[in-house]
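Same chain as my last thread, 422 residues:
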Amino acid sequence: MREWNTDVPNMMEAEFWVQPADVIDAVIARHHAEAPLDWFEEPGYDGLIPVGPGYWCVTRHADVAAVSRNTEVFSSAAGITMLDAPPEFLEFFSSMIAMDDPRHARLRRLVAKGFTPKMLADLDGSVQASAADIVDAVCEKGSCDFVTEVAAALPLKIVCDLMGIPRSEYDGVFEATNIILGIGDPEYQPEGVDFVTALLGAGAQLAELMKEVAEAKRGGDGKDLTSVLVNAELPDDRLSDSDLASFFVLLVVAGNETTRNAISWGLKYLTDHPDQRAIWAADFEGVAPTAIEEIVRLSSPVGYMRRTLTRDFVFGGREMKEGEKLAMFYVAANRDPAVFDDPYKFDVLRDPNPQYGFGGPGPHYCLGAHLARREMTVMYRELFDRLPDIVAVNEPDTLQAAFIHGVKHLDVEFTPTAPLAA
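reply #2:
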C-alpha cells in the first residue's frame, strides 16, 4: 500500500475550502513547491460509500495539460469526482463528461448543435434582457445577496432558455443543482436524508423534468436545443431519453453553478482591488476580454476533475498503477508560478492568460466556454453601467466542497437606482 503525503494539507477535504483565501493560497503554494504530484488520502463519505486507497494530486499546469490530452491512459469513464459512485448513480450522472471516445465524441457532436455561432447569437438578446431584468429586480434595494439574487439568476435562466425549460421550474432546478454540487455542505443537505439518497433524488428530479419537457416538444417546431435534439431527422442525430436527461443534468450543473460562482468571485475580486476595477471601468469593452479570463483563472469554479488510469504508466517520474485515480486541481494549475507571473495577484490586464478554468486542453474542454464568457461580460457591463459603486461588504460565504470552488452568499451594497422598466 502506498504511503499518503501527510506533510502538506489535503486539498480534497471539503473543509479545506472554507478557510480564508490567503490560507488556501499558501497551501497551494506549498503543493507547487513540495508536492506537485503526490499521493494523498481520499476523504470519507459518512460510511455510506467505501473510501478508496488514495489519489494522485496533480497541481502543475503542464501536468494538467498532459493528463487532459492523454485520454487513452487517463480515462473519464469511471467518474469525474473522487467519489466511486454506486451503479444507480449512472442513470443520472453518466453524462458525456464522464465518458471516453467514441461515445463521448458522438454525444458531444450532437449537443454541440446548441453552441453553434447561430444558436449563441440567438441567445444574445436573451442574455442582455435577462441581465437587465435581474438588475431591475434589485437596483432599488441598495443591498442584496449577490449570489442568489444576481449571479445565480442569469446562468440559470439562460440554460433553461437554451433547453426550453418553463420558468415555473427554475426554482426547482436551482435547488436540485445546489444539492448535487453542494452535498458536502451542511446548508444543502436535506434534513433526515443521507447524502446518497439526496443526490439520487436531485438527479431523478432533473431527469424527470427533462423527460417531460422532451415529450412535450416531440413533433413540434421549437428552436430550443431540446426540440432540435428530439426532432432530428436522422436517428443517429437523436439523443436517447437517458442521454438527454444526463446531458441536462450536466448542463444545469456545469452551465449554471460554475458561471454563477465565477460572477460572484469576480465581484469580490473587484471589491478587494479597486485599482483593477478602475482600469476596467475606464475602458470596459477594451479590458473585458482579459478581465473575464482573469476572473475565471483566479476563481477556477471547478476545483478539480478526476481521471482513472487504464493501465500502468510512468508519469512525472511517478510509477502509477492501473485503476488508480488522479485529481487535476485546476485551481492550483491556475496559480502555477511556472506559468503565471505573480500568480496570486488579480490583474485584469493579464495577457497571455492560459487559464484552465474551463478545463484542460483536449476533448473535454468546456463546450459552453464561449457562452459563459458572454454571460459574464453582459452581467458586468450591466453592473458597471447601472450599479457602478456596488461592493461586497463582507467575506464570501464559501461552499464546503472540493469539486466546486463556490460562493453560497455574498452581501453587497450600492446606491439605489430606478429600474429601466419603470
